[in-house]
Design a protein that fits this description.
Strand content: 15-25%
Shape: elongated
Distance between the termini: 26 Å
CATH architecture of the largest domain: 3-Layer(aba) Sandwich
Order of helices and strands: HEHEEHEHEHEHEHEHEHEHHH
Number of strands: 10
Strand order of the largest sheet: 7-6-5-8-9-10
CATH topology of the largest domain: Rossmann fold
Number of helices: 12
Radius of gyration: 21 Å
Number of domains: 2
Largest sheet: 6 strands, parallel
Structural class: alpha/beta
CATH superfamily of the largest domain: Glycogen Phosphorylase B
CATH class of the largest domain: Alpha Beta
Helix content: 40-55%
Length: 278
């Protein structure tokens, strides 16, 4: 005997794909009780009961107006950031950050297609502070990982890391990060790591600008417009004024507390429970 859509219905479907919108969601609606969408573009309509956008935007409440049903519950902002448990754990055991910079972390995402990492390393050469340790992370998708590794080997007090699984640990022991916008922003914030940020993708620009306005990072601009000298001068400024790094760290930790997974999970359980009860 064939099963009806109601017999096959699942409690919750989570959709996380830029190519899907309300047309696809309406197609699967007969087979699911609740639909949750993860988005950050706010550029298309959705047929969903929950929407998660963990990024920081000005007027965040208005971005999805008219794009989701009236009954949809929106979970907006970095307090809902879905971070791995290691970041929450590292936050519990953080040392006090006093603004001194003795270790810098360079990470521009798993891909870094325009090789911003090498640009940051050149900035470290210009900085000429052999007393400052530098950790450099490259992911498996980086087309320049061999070049970056060789560059690191040619520089004093510089360590190359590849495809790591201890990001929270490296962030916790660092005093400053140089990197991209995107979800790594909220990882840095959770651990109170001050950062110099370049946007390496279009959808990172608004996030980086809002983060800088909130005082959790220093935004250098779109990556193609950022040069090594600009990075070097920004680090020099922080070395001269450690209070700036202290303020960035405090604001960052106030923005992201590492409880985003718990908040979102509680809402999901509540929604699924309502669906079962009805």
């Amino acid at each position: 005997m064939a099963l009806s859509a109601q017999d096959r219905k699942v409690d919750l479907l989570i959709v996380d794909h830029y190519a899907l919108d309300e047309r696809w969601e309406q197609y699967v609606r007969p087979y699911v009780d609740k639909i949750m969408v993860i988005d950050d573009l706010a550029d298309r309509a959705h047929d969903c009961d929950l929407l998660l956008d963990q990024n920081l935007y000005e007027n965040a409440e208005l971005r999805y107006k008219g794009l989701v049903p009236d009954h949809c519950r929106t979970l907006l902002g970095p307090k809902h950031a879905l971070l791995r448990p290691e970041f929450k754990e590292a936050r519990r055991n953080l040392r006090v950050r006093n603004g001194d910079i003795g270790r810098i972390l360079i990470f521009f995402g798993g891909g870094d297609p325009t090789n911003e990492t090498s640009k940051a390393l050149e900035a470290m050469r210009l900085l000429d502070h052999p007393d400052i340790a530098v950790d450099v992370i490259a992911g498996s998708a980086s087309p320049y990982k061999e070049q970056i590794q060789q560059l690191c080997a040619s520089m004093s007090n510089t360590t190359f890391h590849y495809q790591i699984n201890n990001m929270a640990q490296l962030m916790a022991r660092s005093d400053l990060a140089i990197g991209a916008g995107g979800t790594t922003t909220w990882e840095r914030c959770c651990i109170g790591l001050p950062a110099l940020v370049s946007a390496i993708a279009f959808n990172q620009i608004a996030i980086a600008e809002a983060a800088a306005k909130s005082g959790v990072c220093l935004y250098l601009g779109v990556s193609q417009d950022v040069n090594p000298q600009q990075i070097q001068e920004s680090v020099e400024e922080l070395l001269k004024h450690p209070n700036i790094a202290v303020d960035l760290s405090k604001q960052a930790m106030n923005l992201v507390d590492g409880e985003g997974v718990a908040r979102v999970s509680n809402v999901l359980l509540e929604q699924v429970g309502q669906g079962i009860a009805s």
